[in-house]
Queue: 3 jobs
Job 1
Amino acid sequence: MKRSSVTTRASILALAVSALALPIAAHAQAAPEETPQEAAAEAGEDVVITGSRIRRDPLDNPSPVTVVDDAAIAKTGLSSIADVLQRIPASSGGLNSKFNNSGNFGNPPDGGGVGAGSAAIDLRYLGAKRTLVLVDGLRYVNGASASGIPGTVDLNSIPDVMIDRIEVLQSAASALYGSDAIGGVVNIITKSGQKGFRATAQYGQYLGDNDGDTQNYQLSWGGGNDRVTLNLGGFYTKQDSVRASDREISQFVNPGQTACTDPIGGCSGAAVNGRILFNPGNPSLPAGGVITVRNAPLNGRGVYDPTLVGGDFRAFTNADRFNFAPFNYFLTPNERYGGFLNARAEFSDAFNVRLKATWAHRESQNQAAFLPLNIGPDAGNGNLLDTISVDVTNPFNPFGITLNSGANGQPATYSLIGRRLVEAGQRTYNQSVDTLTVTGTIDGKFDLFGRNWYYDANAVFGVNDAHQLFTGNLNAARLAQALGPVSQCTGACVPFNIFGGQGSITPAMLAFVAFDEKSRSSQELQDYTFNVSGELFDLPGGPVGVAFGYEHRYQQGSFTPDPIIQAGLGADIPAQAARGSFDVDEVYGELRLPLIRDVPLLRLVELNGAVRHSDFSTAGGNTTLSGGALWKPVDDLLLRAQYAESFRAPSIGELFGAQSRFDQTLDDPCTSAAGGLFQSNATVRANCIANGVPASGSYVEPQGGQISVLTGGNVNVKPETAETWVFGGVYSPAWARGGFASALSLEVNYYDIKVDGAIQSIPAEVLLGRCAQDGDALSCAAVQRTPAGFISAINGVLLNTGGIRTRGVDATLNLRTRQTGAGTFGLSVSGNYLLKYEETVPATDGFTSTNYTGTERGSPDQAYPHFKGQATIDWDIGPVAMAFTGRYIDNVIENQGGNALDSRFYADIQATFRPSWMGERFGLSLGVNNLFDKDPPACFSCSLNNYDPTTYDIPGRFGYARLSYGF
């Protein structure tokens, strides 16, 4: 595909402009604006901020919090709040619309299912399930996509139109908020004080490529009086697809590949014209042992010549393999719409009522290449397909014998038959998801001990209901009948031609064996909380603040695959029904002790702490503690230290999720093909033979293919625990605020997180490597092979592994100038430097550790760059506003193979015009993301499209235009 080029001079200019920009801002707002926290600080008000339930001065925040307001969201030009949050340097990605994982990969080994079409946020590389998502400080129902029971909130189920701002707590907070808050907390604050109408309409697409068209329409209204307020709104978002065939990087299975004959391999053996493998010793064994049809389509029985000199079959070569890469999506299409209502009635200071309701609907699609149909004892499906025999009476069987799978106790006469089912069309997975939440709140304040106390009581009900339709699957029982004795193929049965190559399977044959797979999942949340906060008495540093409360929560989840799939009769990813629930009762308390204030070198000294006890019906009881200290040696400098214990109970999917499969892109060290170690390393050869690889070296499967990993929940897993230390400081000089700046602050935080008993599987690449290199008995027991040496499955079922350890440094700089003759300027810079990310997993003797710092993990995709940063420069003068954003990602090395992924710098630009003659009620914004058209670095071990969608942008410039109007 033809790509645009950028001159070296332009690149140098971009880097120069962003020299200030190497780390960037999640807090990228227009220069003259301020956050609600800053407004409260200027007014001398105490407010509740994320990370504490005690009202306090927001400038004395005991925890690091990043704020993303609606202006910052608008500045990105993105139509998904998940995409916005995933740009924060402390974020490590998560599911988004760049993932095309469904039946072509199956269920990742995290217990949550595919999550096709959904979106999530992952802080600190700890996984989205260790980041707690709240809405107005309250729990939100988990998402689902009819492919499992995730333990995470689907951010696509939250109407963007209702968001006022997002507060991201970059520290553990289980003592305050309960389970899951290990990596941090994302608290979405909804609109409650809007006056009048606001409407926006945005359209964008990838320029030059003319795809990925995105439409986003939002309308909201707020009004009322001093006692009663009402806010409501609706939205519609539609995103069209980007196809892998339309990007150069994803034309083939591996980067830079031009043909399936390239030594790197990776193309599928389930070829369009078929692949037939015979067992050694078979009297019909042809020359080479692997054959395919000579000229497709072969619509009759055909002639088989064992010498392959003549007849209708010839030797199978790598040129016959199938390149499935261009048939995938690079960006998945989706359509979302819904709305919200937020009403509040204030009857008195002591009694107020709030009602909030949200509804969101999503239609999304994933797409994969034509179904790879593999049957026989070496197929590795784990179901009936592995036991199918092709009877001698099948009218298309040319071999004169029954191709016996060995399931009847007789010797197997064939190993595998693979066929790409092009006649059935591409596999498509269509999700339809509805999410409804209703929240009721009663709050107020009362007088106690001569001081103001506050209370709130909340009830949350949420339900997520998802349906998926998969077209392109086969019924294995019907296929066995159609390939079996012709005398038993009666009624609607039509004998099946698996040997004839592309075009030989007729519509009548397909009509008998094909079916539409229909699956469903649902999640339900009931959450009841009661909180009280206030002041007890005064210390020299100020009033002692306390907060305490109670929470009762009930969660239920279920996954119901198609009955044919539950019977084990599908030809795609297997699945079983799963259902589970739990309830939990929790109490907590929080204390703030301001010991000293306004003393030289002790302008503020404060201690704080919290404790929470949880009693889960599934995980038992647990108590977590947190404690911290604040010290202001001078008014302009705040230093803080914090220790927090965390707890995460296993999710429903992690406990009760049924066994399924994940087809992971992996290299097998035991192959004799190029890149394998069987022929060159005696130790590896001995260990591989002990694991079931034929000593003859006849196992020559090419590297880079997909290997089946068994996934599923485990009722025996126990809760995770974690310890977090945070040390940091904020410098906000008065000399600057009193001079050229209206705001200036620099914040630096060091974090150290240790997770024990992490609920996850031992990575498949670790098991393969330890088995082949070390002969580790635990690892080899997890690698299952067929008699021919093929890997039929790797056991990736969840367990409590050793743990995770991560350390790093966050830095944030925010500057806004005062109004000048040249307008106002803003600079927002933030970055994360990753010092360490290490996982420890059990082995036969003790544990082994893998340090992922500075690497690309590969499938399942995740990069761990040493440094990520972004910066935004704003300029606002009269009716014109400009913003330039730079995003930088450090280089990484692939954990498998050692390929280098070079660093990337992305540039985004936006211009906004607000005509003064319309009272600035109207705005027109034009923007381009990835201005310099940077492609992502090529990745060999990544799951799909040869890049990491958690970290990098889709190739191409994305241009957009947005109209906004308020009145």
Job 2
Amino acid sequence: MSRRWFLASVALGASADATSAQDARPRFTPAVEITRTVDGSPAETFPDRPGPSLQLLGPGDALGFDRSVVVRSEPPDGATDAVPEYFAHVEFSDASLPWLLSLPATRRLPWLTLLVLRDDEGDLAPGPFSPVVTAPGSALPDLAESWAWAHVEARVEDGEAPQDAVARDVRSGVDDVVSRLVCPRRLDPDRGWLACVVPATKAGRAAGLNEAAPADGGAPAWSPGQNQVTLPVYHAWRFRTGAEGTSFEDLARRIDPVPTATLAGLGFGSRTVDVRHPWPHADLLAGIAPAQVTVPVHGALTLPGTETADETWTHRPSMDKFRELVVDHLDAPGTRRLPDHVGSLPDRDEKAVAAPLYGSHHSGVQTVPPGGWMRQLNIQVKYRIAAAIGARYVQLEQEFLMARAWEQIGQADEANQALAAGELAAAAAEAAQAKHLSTMKTAALTELATLYRDAVDGSAGEAEPVETLLAPSAVPRGAASTAFVRLTRPGGALRRRTGRTTAKLDVGDVMPTAAFLSEAMDATRTCLPVTWLAGVKEEALQAATGTVQGPLTPQTVFGDPAAAFSTRTLGRFIYTMWMVSVDYLETDSGGLRMFPEFGNPRDRLTALSNQATQVAVDRRPRTTSQPVLVRGIRRVISAEDESAPLLADTGLGMTGGELVGRIRKRVRPVPRTMDRMTTLLGETVMSGRTADDPRPLRPLMRHPEFGFPIAAELLARWPEWAVPGITDFPDDSSALLEPNPAFVEALLVGLNQEFNRELRWREYPTDEAGTPFSRFWPPGGVAPGYGEIARWGPADQLGDHDPSADSKLLVVLVRAEVLRRYPGTIVLAAKSVNRTVEGAGVEWREPRFVLPVDERTNLYGFEDLTAAQAVAEHWMFVVREPMRAAQFGFDKPTDDSPPFASWPDLTWDKVPKVNGFVVPRVVDGLPPTIATPLDPPRWDGLDAADFARILFQRPFQVAFSAKKMTG
């Protein structure tokens, strides 16, 4: 933490050691200190040996200074309402500048000074090197006292000596250490002024005017009582003073809290609305209502304790009739959409286009419900007014709001285009599948799934390709491959070859051959796959004793489907062996010539042929304890070992019907399109969608989000609806207010509903149920506000969704000139200790928001505070002066001025002055002597740093009790 220090002057280097002057130039005699050291002997120091006398530059050697060293002028150049009670001054970044060319003296005087002239006392004119000004003697201070009005200010960290900080930072150009010239002249109000930095010696004046150096060049540039003097100007600026009493303290003391009861008596906080003619086209209340019927309508902010739950008209029967009529009008459009009204004649009266049913887009309710927030909003005038204000804001700002909405949509438009294309493609594919795939046989569908390169859920739930799923089963390897599909296609080589084979099979009548999967997996009648593979007609076989459902079955399996092929192959082998036996091996006796122990081979071969044929057409079931798949064809296609069993476990854990069902599910277009959309758009976009949704590829329904607080817009456009009566709120006053959450929520419903309609009209991807505006009170941003309106409970009441309901919110209204004059004014809440906000133990609270109404009026919102709590716990509201640069001067005396007990209490009527200039000595008993110890202890005998401390204007604050504000 840093502290502010004032020092009387700064002199560094040779000028600090100068002891005399010649021709208005300081003279400096350097000295040399000699120390001799001999090995083994102590050091020996000789007396200083003086060097030659050196002459330094003086005030007559300067024609000005670098303007860049001027870091601040007060009042600022061009100011139009400067405080007349404050002194004009100028600051330099070079802390030693005012004394840089000063002559040696018991009390060093600065070599330049600051003059402030009224606009009628002098003006700038061209000069030899710089502008010049001719000032009257009445505008000239006594230069003998100029030492008191030049000082150094240093911002020093705790624990550091100010002299060290000045020595380190002097001439560094930083603002932590600055030098300052102050003009001690009392400024007149409402006048224009010219401030000039001029030389304070005759030598400096002569040099700037290009005149010969005078013999007494070190003397003051003018003398007391001199008529006028012409001076070169090193730096100048202009400003104008305002009226008296415009200091922060003067203006802040004017603020007067207004009790709540007083404001209520003036009608503040509500507006009276005439409701005698709610419909302009006809007097529907005729015969019921008197000549005038009114209702009070509260705004977004109300006086503490104001009841706003239900409105009360001045004529209750009129209110009841109005509510009956408005419900009938609002229900008319929705009633016509009910099933019992469909097809009826259209309305020909005004009910065909009714007033807005607020909340219908968010709730989905098309008629006024019997209770809840939506009924409150639509039948009470004060809430319909609030909703209409929100809708009107959208109508006025629709172009701006839509531009911001389109900026937020980002890539959602492109995503919706992709979803629309995917939805169209999926619908077309669904139609094609319904036409072609629904009648397709199981085997062909399985082959199609392979072409899709799809995956099927396995028995353990994991996704596996069809080929991988069938590999460990008894289905022949490659049956689910693209190559197999080509091999077994209609008219393919395999089918032609099997056709020729079955044509010669000696098993009775034959039928055309079909591929194994094409017939075996589609089996729904009592038959054996072997008959299709062999081309045997069904009627040529004996009756079966069981039913086969394709190649996969959980129950009973019948003969080897490859038996026909095996019989054909075996028959040819047996026939060949029989011919060999007859022609080469067999003897006349029937035995083998070389191996008589085998007996007659013809009989054995004949018996084997008969047995093979028997097996091929055998329909008797063979039972097994596991689901099995007949595997004969695997031997033919993949050359399986003949020793493998004819019956084997499928390894699938499912029947053929289940497998086919999963294949059909996986080749559905919608899930596949959704997978592609997830890859294309990401998980976030597609989350919450499933293939079983009525419309899984529906467009993204988005609404923009506006984080700015609507309260600021309401105050800017319709302040009387934000705070009724605020236009006539008295100046320099303050009051306590509380939010009206029901009014706020009604306004937000109307605002969001109207903007959703505008979004739909502009073809923005929205379902009109979003809440683009959810924040009313500052601060804005992404923090949650009143929430999504669509999620409000139907039985909720208006006001139940206030985000500050738990923490409460208390608003302080301040209208005062001090806010315009000092825009950075701070208003804080303080929990006082012993009815004061100064000292330890005070709990301070900053406002959650500051809402400007106009340049003189602000609203300050404090969280976790109510009016009753503020009174009970002795809270005060403090108006504090904003942080600013140093100011020097005295307060204007008023009836409210505190008695003089410390230097900050000193007012202009107690300050010693001579010819309008404050003097650093006691004059006519001023300032008065008091018994209270002061720091500095007295007025006379001080240095420039002491006077800087006395003149310095400390930041001011004033506090008002909550009890006084509530009355």
Job 3
Amino acid sequence: MRNSNTNNWRSTALIAGAILTAGVVTTTSTTDVHADNSQNNAQVSNDQVTYNQVRATADQQLAQLQSANDSKEAQQATANEQSNATDLAQTNAQIDQLKASHAALEQEQAGAIAQAQASTAASIEAQTSAANAEYQQQINAQQQNEATQRAANDQQYAQAVSQAAENQQAVADINAQYQQALSDAANTQTSQAQAAANNYNSAVAKENDTYQGKLSAQQATNAENIKNAEASLASATANANKPYEVATTNDVAVTGRVAKPQTDVKVPAYVTKYGIHLEVRGYNGAIPVSDYTYPEFVNTYYGEYPDSAVITNKAAESTPHDISEMPLDFQPGLLSYDAKNDHSEKVSADGLTADQGQVLRVLALSWENGFRNNVFQNYREFYNVVNKNDGFVNVAPVDLVSTDFTDNIANQVVANRTKYNVDNNSHTVKDSGMPTEATYSSIINNATQNLKKNLTSEFNGKTVYTDVNENLTTMQAGTPTLLNYAINLYNSMQGMYYGELVNPTHIGGHAVNLLRAGIRTVGIGFQKLTDEMTAKNGSGVSDRKNPSYAVTFDHVGFNIDHDANLTKEVQNRNVWGTSTVDAQLNTIKTAQYHVNKVPGTKTVTPTATDVQKATASEQQKLADVKAQAQQSLDVLASAHQASLNKLEQQYNDAKAQVKANYDVAVTKAASVRDAALKATGVVDLQAYKAQLDSAYQNLVKADQVAAQKLAADRDAKVANIKKAENAKLDAKINELVPSVDSQIKQLQDQHQAVIAHGDAVLAELKAENKAAYNKLAEQFNVQLAAIQRREDAKRANEVRLANNTVVLPSAVKVANDGNVDTVAFPTASTPLQAETTGRVQTVSAPSIVKTATQTPIAVAPVVTTVNHAAENTVKSNESSAPVVTQTAAVAATTNNGTQTSVASTADNKATKADNSEKSVVKADTVAKKQTPAKKSESLQKVDQSSMSIVALAATALLGTLGITYSSKKRHN
């Protein structure tokens, strides 16, 4: 339900009186109240008129000064151009005259120049010929020397040939002796090499025989060792493959007895005739069986009868014998009770103990979750109808929890019901005779207020719905046992939930409450009924000798903006307390199903892996024996190879010695031969011929190197001759016709000096003009600022509120009020109209102070119009906006909406030569002081108490402000 408060205003007359006491209220009238056609005429002060006139004078005189400056600068630039052109023409004429004179002199001296050039060429030719002749003489001398050397070599070789012919027989004898010595040395070498080979072969054969004997003996030993190791492994393998017995522990699943709900219930005719009477909207009497969509829901109604006494066909499988046999799920159907087979705890005449109540709480919680999940899985149309507007259509619910948080809620509900004597037919509500703070909703709101506050803050902008409801049923027992109470509660909940699912258009309130997907917790309370309560007509208690109870189911949860994902995320948070049902629930679950460990033995047939592990040691031994056998053979082979290598080395050493002996004999024979030939004086003609040829070739190579140097020296000499002679020629020609290049360069430099002088004069003129312009602009700015300050001081105490002008008390008396000192300025022949005439100018609107409960009001922008000509008016874009008369604070704007001062534009003024734009003054420094980011000095000095009065006046006079309070939406 949405709550609202009416605005509570204090006396408007009291506030109005405060305004009249604070200052003078001036009222103006408006004749047109349409939102798109409201008018507002603002007054213009004398200072504002003076301000606009001064600014117009500034624009006019600055424009005239700028025009005069531009004219002078243009004249100077034109004079510079003319002077530069005249000087350039004179300079070019002088240069042309110099060039013509130079060309005439060249023509005049042409004969002398030609004669000098011919003389130079003849001199170069003569000196070059002499250098070439000298070079050729040197080359001829080298060639002559080479010819002489070649003739001498030929003569020496002929003499050697003649002498060799005379000693030919002696040489033949010496060579024969030499050949015999070589033959003897070769025979000795062959004999010694054969002896060494024979010794080597004999030693190798002996070593091979020795090795073969050792090898045979070792192989026999190895074979025996391997045979023994293989036999040991075979025995170990046979033993490892034998099956064996081991002790075991077997898991034996034990499934306890769990009663199954009975759906094929039969009842006496009088019960059938009475019909089904449940709290389902749309039925005032009995519910026709034919209206039920699912027939299995019909029989659950009979669970409303104590102990299901009306069932005539009780099934044994639907009769539990202890609490552990109670079903934890909640399928449609009823349970039966057999007092003779009840093995559960007794319940005293004082009623349930805390532990017994907790057991029933565990069961009831499990049944509520079973109902929700079963309906969602198998009867979803009912679930979707309940949650069609909550965002949970076809979205599975989260299981309910029972925690210390909900236990506290349940205990408070029971305590309050007991205190205010609320019976089992009345909910924990105000209509039951209890105060509001004692109701279940108040208890829940108090318990969840912090959580609700946090969620509301977290999901700002979204709606946080509170799901809170209460279901109520009666629990009784004909036999005071825990099992009898549990069966009675089970059957009662069957009728309260399944019995109310008539069809998707007719669902009872209890079922709707439980099927709400937004709920997350349930506080289950057991209120012991008094004798007075059970004696009332309609109490439903059939046996009053045992305690009876009103069982309350108080559900709590939140739905976040009908968003299933957000809601389930909150439901799964750790904010709902600590579960208090886990221990009892696990005890029941264990009784219904657990696994026992049973000791025993079994025969194990070893696997290949088992055999492998058992024989690993023997396998390793066999591998070691084989490795040792191979190692012993490797040792013998290694020793044998070492002996063969040693014999081979000895044989190689013997062969080397035989070769060394042969080389000594050959060297000795050659030495004897050479000594004999030397004694006869005979030389080696071939070697002697090669020696003579080598000497000649060395001479030729040396001459080639010398010839290259001679050629280089000659070329350098010729180049120097040409250089010296050409230098003499250039000097001669320059003497005949002197150069004019230096004179031309001097004339060009003089012309550049003329140009630079003109540029300097023009720059100096521009600087002087700019300084004069800035000085005049600054004078105007100073005067305009003085006018603005006086206007600010006068208007600091005036505030416009709608059609009223409030004059506030002034802390400082304004001097010269209404008077503006005039300052003499140079006059212009044609005054310029101020640009702000008739222009809309923005004014900062005052803020209206409001209380914390009010909705802030956006103050519309206020516009004023300064119009000196036709008194034009401007339409406002907002209606009922307060208008503040602050003409002195009006900001002057340019055509494009920007604000600039005279001083800021001065730096942008320039001559036409700079291509800068000339314009009148666009704004003034006063406007820059009134931007929204700054307040004028005088406004900051307004008494704060006066401003408070203005705020109250604004609130009273506007008179249309509303105060609205709203609460969070909440599910019913």
